[in-house]
Amino acid sequence: MESLDLVVLSDALQWRAAGHAVTLVTVVQTWGSAPRPPGALLAVRDDGVVSGSVSGGCVEDDLIARTRASFAAAAGSASPLPALIAYGVTREEASRFGLPCGGTLRLVQEPLLDSHWIAQLLQWTGAHQLVARTLTLATGDVQLGQAVRGQAMQFDGATLTTVFGPRWRLLLIGAGQLSQAVAQMAAMLDFDVLVCDPREGYAPGPATAAACGRRLPGMPDDVVRELVPDAHTAVVALTHDPKLDDMALIEALQSEAFYVGALGSRANQQKRKQRLAEHFDLSEQALARLHGPVGLDLGARTPAEIAVSIVAQIVQVRNRPTDAGAGDTFTAP
Fold first, then answer.
1. What global pTM score does this model have?
2. Does residue 98 come out as left (phi exceeding 0), alpha (psi in the -120 to 50 range) or beta?
3. Around 283, how many Cα atoms within 13 Å sit in the side-chain half-sphere?
4. CATH number for the domain running over 169-318
5. CB 3.0-4.6 Å disulfide test: which of 33, 173, 209, 215 passes with 100?
6. What is the pLDDT of residues 125-147, one digit of tens each?
């Protein structure tokens, strides 16, 4: 799931509320060098306006034309049902649509007749839940249910189950120059960036406030505790002040955060781990989760280079395969 797909669903919901006919298109299978992964979404409005993509631009024009024709043909007739579409089945067709390396796409085209499930799905993902959506092609029926982190899209030709979840969150402890660089890079990767720094001297100015992430008031350990980090949350301590970093790390290391990191040299990290173990009774298992020194070893020196190493490591850890069935559970608010 990409948060872009949630944007696509939000656009589709707004279009339906405004009286437009809408079709959803989902990538269900790819062969060769396909530009978009299974599960990628495209919404096509009756006037040809689109949100999202399924091929990076290769087949969208044809899909728009095909969808608008189906809207015209369906006027006054029975409600259309979902259908399968394939592009690039032959070498000639792959070349005509510009699919790289002879790639092939198999798509499900789904007229959006009932949008109530979208509102429910967006409500649950907004509450940081993972949701599985199952579409029955023979009837167009949609069901929402529980999903777990690592669960993949499934398609058996009759039913399509896709997983939608919350945006990935990044909580930064500290609002200095390095934190600003990390926040900007993480925002470009679509992280919801949150920043906590109780030090008055580090309040962002008007020129940098918008690029520094959303500021959370309070002491770092209280903020981490109230945030309740889950398997879609990373926490990085960047103040270089043990009074602030350590208390936040204690809470983060005992949470479900998928990534916890702290700035500091190897010697300082060793001292930190000894301190946390001796004075705060953190287990070896909890301490082993701490990435410190934070970031990949790129030989980074400047704040921007260090930020690259930190964000790269967060993405690396996030993208590691996880066992389906572990991690998040679903509870309807």
1. 0.71
2. left
3. 5
4. 3.40.50.720
5. 33
6. 988 888 999 999 999 999 999 88
Of how many residues is the chain composed? 333
* Structural element, H or E, at residue 261: strand 259-262
Closest-CA residue to 202 (of 235, 179, 223, 224)? 179
* Chain segment 218-277, per-residue pLDDT in tens: 999 999 999 999 989 999 999 988 889 999 999 999 999 999 999 999 999 999 999 998
Q: How far apart are CA 293 and CA 241, in angstroms?
A: 15
- d(CA 55, CA 34) in angstroms, rounded, equals 7
Measured distance CA(100)–CA(284) in Å, rounded: 48
User: Starting from the edge strand earliest in sequence, which strands make up the sheet with 214-215, in order?
Assistant: 214-215, 192-196, 169-173, 233-237, 259-262, 290-291
Who contacts 126 (Cβ-Cβ below 8 Å, separation ≥6)?
166
Backbone angles phi, psi at 10, to 5 degrees: -65, -40
| SS3 per residue for 209-243 | HHHCCEECCCCHHHHHHHHCCCCCEEEEECCCCHH
Q: Strand pairing partners for 42?
A: 25, 52
Q: Is 72 helix (H, G, I), strand (E, B) or coil?
A: helix
CATH 3.40.50.720 domain position(s) in the chain = 169-318
